[in-house]
Design brief:
The chain contains 15 helices and 16 strands. The strands form three sheets. The protein has a seven-stranded parallel sheet, sandwiched between helices. Strands 13-12-11-14-15-16 form a six-stranded parallel sheet, with helices on both faces. A three-stranded antiparallel sheet has the order 2-3-5. The protein is globular and about 65 Å long. The chain folds into two domains: 7-187 and 377-401, Glycogen Phosphorylase B (Rossmann fold), CATH 3.40.50; 193-374, 3-Layer(aba) Sandwich (Rossmann fold), CATH 3.40.50.2000. It has helices at residues 28-40, 104-110, 123-132, 138-161, 170-176, 199-210, 232-241, 257-266, 281-291, 308-314, 325-334, 345-357, 359-375, 378-393, 395-401; strands at residues 7-11, 17-18, 24-27, 45-50, 60-63, 71-75, 90-95, 114-119, 164-168, 183-186, 215-220, 246-251, 273-276, 295-297, 319-322, 337-340. The chain is α/β, with parallel strands linked by helices. The longest helix is centred in the middle third of the chain and has 24 residues, at 138-161. InterPro entries: Glyco_trans_1, Glycosyltransferase_grp1. GO terms for molecular function: glycosyltransferase activity. This is Glycosyltransferase.
Length: 413
């Protein structure tokens, strides 16, 4: 347990709703995450959430607030977030990715509270997302890009003034770490120690490589253009045209699902490419990745801190992908990925064909990735974030508690 003592208040991105019987309808993953915060924090923990009212809330379940190890403040849709601030001593954790939370900093400091902002998207990523938004015409996309540029000024100002900042991924670290005296870079992922690939599974994978069996490629994620889903069939076609034996298994759903299914049929790829609906992460995707795949393929071109990379590495899979800022930095830091020019499917197919002929290299990077994921598993990254919050609230006490450990700047390093 970290030496928090004051109240830890988290301003949530996900809403909740109050039921007629007094129970709360809450996202199950959010409840699990908040429970971990309560277990690790030496002091009261509270979540501030918007009241969704009668709207639909996927993946939610009724919860008796009296059974929760943390308090919940439910705010009306039109209530200012600042109205939920408590009294000192305490620290708030807010999201600098959400513009409506940027005003919390000044209000919290006025009450004597410490302020920590978390952030994962850079301005470059925001502009790319706005530019790819097919639901808006060109003038509206341009307006959205201009709005993001203007919002960035307030975001950078609040990051400078905060008592600490938590940066998810290498791009956010590169863009914002120098703004604040107490930055923490972490790599968000869902891999616990018990979910990592086992020595027996790695040995079985190595045996397949030694026997020269076809490479088993796997991809998971939302099937959207902004995630590179439109490039999966062209990649499979390029590999097939090279005469390389392989399989590509895709797990996911999204706007491109019909297009991908049609592409599999049109290109005659049914014997090589399989498209499956999403499966539960821990009980479905992780076991399949550990036992039925050799390389994770990503066509993602944005630089957001996709947790998929580290999670694939934790399953014993090296990653082949495009050189977005996140994967390029991760490849250098981990030695467990190959990066190709952005959007160049032919180059990616060429690299995979080379790997088919060099299975020693595949296994070397698989082992490197597994070791890297072990040093950055969920527990390590989460503990680093909690220690960082405690250090912000009680620098002297947290310094003594961390004696013998390097003062944290980068989780898992």
């Amino acid at each position: 347990m970290v030496l928090g003592r004051g109240e830890l208040t988290l301003f949530a991105a996900v809403p909740a709703a109050r039921m007629p019987d007094g129970r709360l309808l809450m996202d199950e993953k959010f409840v699990s995450g908040m429970t971990l915060h309560a277990q690790r924090w030496d002091g009261p923990v509270r979540a501030v959430m918007r009241d969704l009212g009668k709207g639909a809330l996927p993946f939610a379940a009724p919860v008796d607030p009296a059974t929760l190890p943390f308090a919940v403040t439910l705010l009306a849709q039109d209530a200012p977030l600042e109205s939920a601030l408590g009294d000192a001593p305490g620290v708030i954790l807010a999201s600098a990715d959400m513009v409506d939370q940027l005003a919390l900093g000044a209000a919290a400091r006025a009450r004597g509270l410490r302020v920590v902002y978390g952030i994962e998207y850079t301005l470059e990523t925001r502009l790319r997302i706005a530019g790819l938004d097919r639901d808006r015409n060109l003038p509206r996309r341009l307006w959205s890009m201009l709005w993001n540029i203007r919002a960035e000024r307030a975001r950078r100002r609040e990051l400078r003034l905060a008592d600490g900042i938590q940066l998810n991924g290498f791009p956010a670290e590169g863009a914002y770490a120098r703004l604040n005296a107490r930055p923490l870079r972490y790599l968000d992922n869902r891999m616990s120690t018990g979910m990592l690939a086992t020595p027996a599974e790695m040995a079985a994978r190595r045996q397949r490589h030694d026997q020269g069996q076809p490479l088993r490629l796997i991809h998971s994620g939302r099937l959207e253009r902004m995630k590179g889903g439109h490039l999966l069939i062209p990649l499979a076609r390029a590999l097939r045209d090279r005469g390389m034996p392989f399989s590509l298994t895709i797990y996911g759903t999204g706007a491109l699902e019909p297009e991908i299914r049609e592409g599999i049929a049109r290109e005659g790829l049914a014997g090589l490419v399989q498209l499956h609906a999403p499966v539960p992460f821990e009980t479905g995707l992780v076991p399949v990745s550990r036992r039925e795949a050799d390389v994770f393929v990503s066509c993602h071109m944005q630089s957001d801190p996709s947790c998929t990379y580290v999670e694939a590495m934790g399953c014993g899979l090296p990653v082949v992908g495009f050189a977005n800022h996140m994967l390029a930095a991760l490849a250098q830091d981990s030695g467990a990925a190959w990066c190709l020019p952005m959007g160049n499917v032919e180059a990616m197919a060429g690299r995979i064909a080379e790997l088919d002929r060099d299975r020693t290299e595949v296994m070397a990077r698989a082992e490197a990735g597994l070791d890297y994921a072990r040093r950055h598993d969920f527990g390590i990254e989460f503990d680093a974030r909690m220690d960082h919050l405690a250090a912000v609230l009680s620098p002297r006490d947290s310094g003594r508690a961390a004696a013998g450990r390097p003062q944290h700047v980068r989780a898992g390093s």
